[in-house]
Specification:
The structure is a single chain. The chain is mainly α and about 170 residues long. The protein is about 55% helix and about 5% strand. It has a two-stranded antiparallel sheet with strand order 1-2. Helix 4 packs across helix 7. The longest helix is centred in the middle third of the chain and has 26 residues. The radius of gyration is 22 Å and the shape is elongated.
Length: about 170
Amino acid sequence: MSGFGGRRGREKAAPEVKYQREGLSQEEIEELKEAFDLFDTDGGGTIDSSELKAAMESLGYDKKNRTIVEMIENMEDGEIDFEGFLDMMTARMSDSKEDIMKVFRLFDESGSGVITIDDLRRVAQTLGDSMTEAELKEMIDRGDTNKNGVIDPDEFVHIMLSSHKAAVAPQ
C-alpha cells in the first residue's frame, strides 16, 4: 500500500479535448459543447434521443423539423456522444451555409467574390428601399471584420448565422 501514498487527494485532471470542424469557429464548437453538456445530465458523455430533442429545441430548432427528426431516428443505440452530435450539427450547418452562399451570390452580381457598397445599393434599389450612403456604409462596416471595405463570404456567413441565432434566442 505504500506505493499509493503520494497520490492521495490528487485526482488526475482529464486533458481538455479541442474539437475542430471545418466551417465552425472554436467559439461555435464551444457553444455546441455547452448545449450538449447541459443535456448530458448524468455526465456520462452521451445523450439519448429525448435529451437530444431538448438540446435541439434549446438551440432554436423546431422539433417538427424534418432534418432533426431524421437525425434522432438515425441515432445508433438511442444515444450519441459529442463527436456524433458535432458531426450532425456540422452537416446541418453545412446545408445552411450552402443556402447562405446562394444568397451571397445574389448580392455579388458581378462575381467578384465580395459584396461591395455598390452591390448593397443595387439590392436596396431592387427592393425599393432608398438607403442613404451612410446607411449602406454602416452595413458594410458592421460586417467587415477584417476592415478591407467589403464583405467576403466568411463575413457574410457569420453575419447571417449570427442574425439567425439572435432571431431564435429566447427572450
